[in-house]
Automatic annotation (TrEMBL):
Keywords: Cytoplasm, Magnesium, Metal-binding, Methyltransferase, Pantothenate biosynthesis, Transferase. NCBIfam families: panB, PRK00311.1. Mg(2+) binds at residues 45, 84, 116. Pfam families: Pantoate_transf. It comes from Pseudobythopirellula maris. Binds 1 Mg(2+) ion per subunit. Pathway: Cofactor biosynthesis; (R)-pantothenate biosynthesis; (R)-pantoate from 3-methyl-2-oxobutanoate: step 1/2. This is 3-methyl-2-oxobutanoate hydroxymethyltransferase.
Amino acid sequence: DKQLTVPKFTAMKAEGRKITVLTAYDYTMARMVDAAGVDAILVGDTLSMVVQGHGNTLPVSLDEMVYHAEMVGRAVEHALVIVDLPFPSYHLGAHKAIENAGRILKETRCQAVKLEGGVDQAEVISALVGAGIPVMGHVGLRPQNVHTLGGYRVQRDRKQLLADAQAVERAGAFSVVLECVPSDIAAEISKKLRIPTIGIGAGPACDGQVLVLNDMLGMTSGYVPKFVKQYADLKGEVARAVGSYCEEVRSGEFPAPEHGYE
Ligand code: KIV
Ligand code: NA
């Protein structure tokens, strides 16, 4: 079947179908995730941490986001592909935001962008949407604000969260991520909005869920947040496979005759 479109993604809410989203950052993983049937793939700026090894999402550049979006775009046949706008590519005025976000649509096969912000980003969102660039909002915990926030923690200002989510919807976004928001506030927001809410650490009442692929596959070394469920232990699998390989090469067990040519 054909690739999921932005309007069809949004319509899933009214149809009462939960929306599944995962991140992916390269061709190999994006192909597997797409083939497994996820609705949307996010080329998240978390690639700054999980691919590049930085401590937060601030260092990744627009060129690097485009590079990873190209790889994912080439891999995906079914899922909608959304790409994070990196810090500070959408804070330089609407004109520059269109120029920067436009690169995602011009240079990759991806269909939409995501940016962090609510009331404060409404103008930029509406400028992008006006230019034909579909936007997913992102409210609650905004990792690009880490230095202002002084760390990553649950966001509990009900009034502000609701105002942000509604501003994003009014500005024309097709969906909004709610990150690290108490479940009851996320439920209230999800009920009030027409566009789907995609939760991460925001409870079960959201219209969809998103996780960082490396976290849910058990590939992440170091801290994994409480909201992550690990569906696999790929770190353990890799350790086992690499350990066996090294052992067998050292003992002479690999390669066996069947791995060679006459
Ligand atoms: O960058 C990212 O991976 C994200 C998701 C966790 C929502 O923004
Ligand atoms: Na992100």
